[in-house]
Amino acid sequence: MAKIIVVTSGKGGVGKTTSSAAIGTGLALAGHKTVIVDFDIGLRNLDLIMGCERRVVYDFVNVINGEANLKQTLIKDKRTDNLFILPASQTRDKDALTREGVEKVLNELAKDFDFIICDSPAGIESGAMMALYFADEAVVVTNPEVSSVRDSDRILGMLSSKSRRAEQGLEGIKEHLLLTRYNPERVEKGEMLSVEDVKEILAIELVGVIPESQAVLNASNSGQPVILDKDSDAGQAYLDTIKRLLGEQVPFRFLNVEKKGFIKRIFGG
Amino acid sequence: MSLLDYFRSSKKNTASTAKERLQIIVAHERKRRNGPDYLPQLERDILEVIRKYVDIPADQIAVSLEQRGDQISVLELNVTFPDDKR
Ligand SMILES: Nc1ncnc2c1ncn2[C@@H]1O[C@H](COP(=O)(O)OP(=O)(O)OP(=O)(O)O)[C@@H](O)[C@H]1O
Ligand SMILES: [Mg+2]
Questions:
Q1: Are strands A75-76 and A83-86 parallel, antiparallel or unpaired?
Q2: S-S: A73 plus which of A1, A36, A53, A58, CB 3.0-4.6 Å?
C-alpha cells in the first residue's frame, strides 16, 4: 500500500516545495519508489527545484482529463533511482483539479509507488484542500514566526476535519512538524521563537528542524534538491528528517549556535 | 546576574512576546473551530445587546460551548466590564 504524504503549511513561501523535493528524494535514496506530485496548479515550481523543467511534456491536469496517461506524463529523475515527478499544470483554471480526478490519479499511482508526496499550494483554498484530502500523513512546514505558526494551526484544523480520513471516520492523519529556516543565533538572542516554543504551541510531533541555510538557494539555483548536498547543514538536517519519517530515532542537530573554533575564527568558514 | 546579562535582558525579548500572543490566539481559534458555526454570530449578537447598556470593547467578550460528558454541553459566556463602566 502506498503512503500518501502531504507537505502543507497554510502560509506561502515557508519551504513546502523545497521540503517536498528533499523528502521525495530522500525516500527514494532510502530505496522506496517515490513520486512527488505538484498540486500548485498555475504556479508550477517543483520542476525547477528538481531540475527537470525542460522535460515537462504533459501534466497532472492532462492526466485527469484523459489527454495523456501517467506513463507519458511522469518524469523519471535523472540523478536518483526510484524517483518520479508529476508536474502541475500551468492552467489558470482554478477548478482544473476535481476530487474524482485526483482520486483516480492517486489510486493509479498507489499501485506502483511506495510513497506519494503531495506538494501543496499555499492558502486554504481548493488547491490546498485537494492536496491534503487523501493524505495518510502530513508534514506541516512551519517557520519560527507568528503568522506561519498560526497558519499551521489552521491547517492542523483542516487536516482533522476536512480530509478523507476525517470524513470517513478513519484513523486521523499522522501529523509531523517540520520547522524550517531556523536561525539558532536569533533564537539565542531572544529574537526568534525556539523549537520548544513552536512545539508547545502546535503540540504535534517534531520530525525535523532545517536551519536557515545558504545551501538552499545554491540548490535551487542549480536545480538539485538540497538533500543531495550532503555536506551542507540543510542537506544533513533533511537526511535526519527522512530517517525520523521512516521511524528511526535520530538526535536533532543544528539547534544551537555553532561555537567557532580558533582556526575558524581567524580563517573564516 | 552579570553586567552583560543585565544589558541583554533589558532589551525586550520579542520571542517571548510572540509566544504569549500565539498561545492566546491559537487557543481561541481552536475553541472556535471545535464549536458550532453559529457561535461567532451568537457572540456578536450578545455583544450588541450588552452594548445597549454598557460600552465594552469587542475583545472583552468570549462565548464558547463546552462538552460536559455525553449528554450536555454548557454555553459559557465571559464578559469583562471595564473598571469605570460598572
Ligand atoms: N532552510 C532554508 N534556508 C534558506 N532559505 C530557504 C530555506 N527553505 C526555503 N528557503 C527559501 O524560501 C523560499 C520559499 O521556498 P519554497 O518555494 O520551498 O516555499 P513554498 O512554501 O513552496 O512556497 P509557495 O507557498 O509559494 O509554494 C525559496 O526562495 C527558498 O530558497
Ligand atoms: Mg511551493
A1: antiparallel
A2: A58
- CA–CA gap between residue B45 and residue B35 (Å, rounded): 17
Low-confidence ranges of chain A (pLDDT < 50): 269
pLDDT tens by residue, A19-33 = 999 999 999 999 999
- Tell me the nearest-neighbour CA distance from A149 into chain B, angstroms: 8
This model of the complex carries an ipTM of 0.86
A196 Cβ under 8 Å from any chain B Cβ: no
DSSP state, B81?
P
User: Which three cell numbers mark A155?
Assistant: 491547517
pLDDT single digits (tens) A202-219:
999 999 999 999 999 999
The single residue listed with the C-alpha cell 507519458 is: A72
Mutate to test the interface with B, among A142, A148, A149, A151 (most CBs of B within 10 A): A149
- Residue B61: pLDDT over 90: no
Distance CA A3, CA A5 (A): 6
All three cell numbers of A115, joined, read: 510513497
Q: Is A31 in the pocket of ligand 1 (CB under 6 A)?
A: no
